[in-house]
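yo

u said u wanted the structure for the complex thing, so here. seqs first:
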Amino acid sequence: MPTIVDVANRAGVSAITVSRVVNDSGPVSTQVRARVERAIAEIGYLPNAVARSLRSKRTDTIALIVTDMTNPFFTTVARGAEDAASDAGMMLIICNSDEREAEEVRYVRMLVGRRVDGILLVPAGGGATAIGLCRKQGMPLVVVDRRVPGHDADVVRADSRGGAFELGRLLVSLGHRTMAVLTGPRAVPTADDRVLGFRRAVAAAGGLRPPRVYHGAFTIDSGREMARLALAARPRPTALFAANNFLAIGVLHALDEMGVRVPEDVAVAGFDDLPPAMVTFPFLTVAAQPAYEMGQRSVALLLARLSGGPGPGQPYAEVVLPTQLVVRRSSGDPRGALHAPL
Amino acid sequence: MPTIVDVANRAGVSAITVSRVVNDSGPVSTQVRARVERAIAEIGYLPNAVARSLRSKRTDTIALIVTDMTNPFFTTVARGAEDAASDAGMMLIICNSDEREAEEVRYVRMLVGRRVDGILLVPAGGGATAIGLCRKQGMPLVVVDRRVPGHDADVVRADSRGGAFELGRLLVSLGHRTMAVLTGPRAVPTADDRVLGFRRAVAAAGGLRPPRVYHGAFTIDSGREMARLALAARPRPTALFAANNFLAIGVLHALDEMGVRVPEDVAVAGFDDLPPAMVTFPFLTVAAQPAYEMGQRSVALLLARLSGGPGPGQPYAEVVLPTQLVVRRSSGDPRGALHAPL
DNA sequence: TTGTACGCGTTATCAC
DNA sequence: GTGATAACGCGTACAA
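structre next:
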């Protein structure tokens, strides 16, 4: 693979002159510039970004660590992040932690070693180790989607509590008095926040029994399993709230298997919308998170930190984006008024 | 950020000794090793992969360029590729071409500049420019999912013709005599192959009119639009074959909007399955591609090329994986026999 | 067992 | 307007 010296020899100039032409830094006479450009084209020279990075200490690369890139929510976040990064002339590396802290830490280590310019992290569990590692290594970091207990990092997330509150209020207004919440692992803030928001809505209604809460994983299998548990309880709930999209799908599968009709027998509401392109028949009532925008905003915040000088600078920022209530058939008939068009 | 020299100073040894400890290359006395390891831990040293790559000419990184990472098919391919890469100690960079050749070429240029060890490419359109660029730059390349017209590259793909043939045969066996095929852009081999396979099945049945063919984009909107066109034709088709998952979903939406029942009024079959985790009610009859395995195999082939010495070595390989026919409700009742369980 | 010299490809600094 | 020199952080080749 040709180097800058090869180009220089062919054009009869020095390496630094080629560098000036390539980067448009410093003065070069028109004739020399032409000669250099021709040489570049002839031998197909492409500057070596590795060498460049070694000098500049910038890789123009940022990384996004998600817990599951199979989840369309994270795919959409990634897409938003990539578009924003691309606009800024940066590449985006996507990594999967599989909701495992060990994997997450392994990736952070690799990424720091590769000297990416910054990391966007959807923390598995608390994420404390990974966050501490970035902090110690001076690696710019933005936490995405999940609140950080100690608030000791920049965060971009959606309003989980608010969204869950709205869903709770909706179900209450539809007359449900016995409900259950199916959520993710205990340590995950989004899992807890959605429970909290829902609980508040129920409490605000007054006189209702607090919803029973089930903890599991954010997976379809876990949703199926928890749905069976929930329906076995007495008094049997008339509405289920699934705290993420995969859980909701698992719930629907379980109910289908059990011959329970939705929404006639049991109403269902979920968190995270599924992209329209992925759904044969829009059916689920959800609190939709602005996934694409979350990706964009995360990159924007990270870039701001990068250019805003090194150190901590300002205190940590927390960007909280609103969710959107989308009412469909799964929550039952709201007296005909709120129906979203198919 | 500390360097190898910092560690060396702190441990009272030379840089190369630290290098030997870190890479376990060459002999180091137990005591020195201990001193060095302590120094590494104390100052939190992480080897600089950029400098390492500059010397070794390897980045331990490969890239995957897909046309749309929002599509669950490609997400699954990516997941398979990432797992395989991770097992081999490599990182995977994912890029979106958005089915645009200009973007694709831009990414190839960036990736060659960054000296990734190899590229997995789902070509947008013919992909001729990108493939030529890789060839010229000596960048190892594996083409994924799409056949390459001149066969001048390693390829891993599914058997589009075979899968489409099976779907065609199924619909014929269900009694359909007037059918339409909705596919992607003309230049895309998968789009053409699926038409071809379907056509052959119809021709093989004998005495049937050849299916009408519509070309569009591999998007939900295009599927909706082509479905409307197809149903306006006379004689009106009784079965539609959508050559990709997004197209199929667009078709279902259009039919729903038009009040056409599936499968009672019109049967529908598609290509590419949707992951179970993403589907509220499994409904579509499809030829499913082994997406995860395609990702794995692509990486395996690339790694084989990397270790199998530089030059062309052997002639180009073509790995063709079989699709799987999954019969569900959308294709109509096959006399009760073939129904897949929900 | 440990260390010295050098080069990977690029660019910042300073000179001409 | 152009070029020589050095340095980024690491690992190979060769000594000691």
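The first helix of chain B runs from residue 4 to 11. The longest strand of chain B covers residues 61-66.
cya
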